[in-house]
Amino acid sequence: MDRPPLDPRELLDAFSRVQQNAGCAGVDSVTVDVFAESAPAACTRLADQLESTEYRAFPLRRILVEKKPGSKESRTLLVPTVRDRVVQTAVARRLSKSFEEEFLESSFAYRPHRGVDRAIARIRMLRDQGYWHVVDADIHSFFDNVDFVQLEAQLAARGEPAWLLALVGEWIRCPAWDGTRLRARDKGLPQGSPLSPLLANLYLMPLDAALAARDWKLVRYADDFVVLARSEAEAREAMDLVGGELGKLRLELNALKTQITSFDLGLHFLGVFFQKEEIWTPWRDGPREQGRVLGMARPMPPEQLERFRHARIPTTMESALSDAGVRYIPAQTPITKGTQTDVAYLYLTEQGSILRKSGDRFLLEHEDKIVLDIPYHKLEQVLVFGHVQITSQAMVEMMEKGVDISFFSWGGRFHGSIASRKGANIRDRLLQYQIWHDTARVREAAHAIVANKIANARGVIEWLAARRNQMKELAPVRDALVELEKSATADTAASLDTVRGYEGAAARAYFGGWATLNRSDFLWSGRTMHPPKDEINALLSLAYTLLTQELAGLLEADGLETSLGFLHEFDGGRPSLALDLLEAFRNPIADRFVLNLLERGAFGRSDFGRGEGEAVLLTGPALRQFMAHYEHWMQSPRRTGAAEGAPFRELVRREARRFVLFVRGQAGLQLYRFAEEANGDEPESREPEGCDISSVTT
Question: Burial of 504 by CB count in 10 Å (0-12 exposed, 13-18 middle, 19+ buried)?
Fold first, then answer.
């Protein structure tokens, strides 16, 4: 990852702004005055931490204040530490220079040489031009409901550098400290962050642009705005458009506070009252009073804060395993900033064990002994292999907390899953159904998926051939894939069956190269799936299954119907949509993972056994070892030349978000293209540590 180009002088200038704004200390108890005592040295340390990617944002301090003096309503501030405010201010200054060129005239908040006076003057001018009818709008809890995925997509679409996207992703997702515990956040901009005002303006730019294209006039001050029209009918039409645009941003109007009015009836906006040709500004008669502080979280105890001072924070799962007395040594390479590394995947493999609920924890029992005691609030998925029982109380708790449970045979064959009621956004599913009913769009999507898969297969073959100095041996495979990619890309009018034919031919050509690539002791007779009939096929099938379930969980979390795909036909409970997205990752992630295991001799013939029929399966200890290798592969940063790339898990999450945006019609179908990655793009090839865990791997 490229490094943040923030030098100590720039950070010191940013601290001057933080000092002017004053404000309280964050969770570390360091006030602005205390920071000022050693500001030059502190800014130099911050610059070094940013350069080495050792910087980590501290949690946000929760403060409850009155909305207005004497009001019964309150709002929650989430305040970063002074050090984090310094870095955020420096980044906000950097961003504002480019953002300012794109923000529209209708936006007045948090911008240089603009403000309340300019907004009021704009309304007065429009009123005098005949825009007499007004949509007086209020967004329901705007700052609390900003969608992380949407915001990051907007930043990425602007071409912002990777270091900036990683920092912003970490800041907006910072947990909140309420005085007793950390609380995870899955949406919202923290009010109290110097960067939030700028990001708020960026997030609402699609609304600004939609209204600018019509003959209505928007005047927006952050999330407070009015739309002026020449007639009541136009005002009602404008309100409908506003509701639709906010829906695309996963926001909604506050029905109780949104109304259509006119200057005859009067308008309150930004503390000013408009009626007919008159304007009253009562707040100018004296200083505006601030609401009092109702409550403030105490600072974090030093022992709890200490874990955030290190370059790598132990995950919740690692801490729980340590508490349970289970030996677990994480990989030495730290996870890239901005990734969600504290979300756990539990693999339950100890045959005959029982998972129970006890208070706010899960207990795994085996032979009347507790082998695992872990809090469940950070779990994302539980994967159960073979004869492992889960009590109904534990299942209900998982469903309520949004934790999916997937069931597999002892050898890794997927049986089914239990999922909570996620993704209540019916709009996304309706859009997905519309695409599925549109033959042309389905064919277009299938074309894109297959062409991308063939390109990735070619990219992997070329990468492996160059790495092993086998360009001559693999040239026929590469050339065949090149021709198939050309045909699949050019034949845009082909039927779905023809498109699937291209995909099948490419797979045969690609796997034909495996006979040349295979240097292991295992024989390779070609791809067999149901069941896998040799050791290599057993490893491939298991890797595909785990990756498919991960993708299905991400898509379901966003409310999509995973059984309804575009390339893969509907087939009962098969996760066809996840299989569509899997095609972008089969060769670059799953196949290279298996080749990595084979190259290192990670498994021998004694690690495999026979299942039903002719199925070849990993044995119990080897299966646990496979899970450890898989998690290491998915979580470790990738080497991209001399730099670090985001871990595969973060890459998969990013692509799933882009896929959701495609379904919403907010982006084209863009899939991960391995050819665009630098050579050497894989995690380090060393043994993952902590593989002696007897019952779980995280």
Answer: exposed
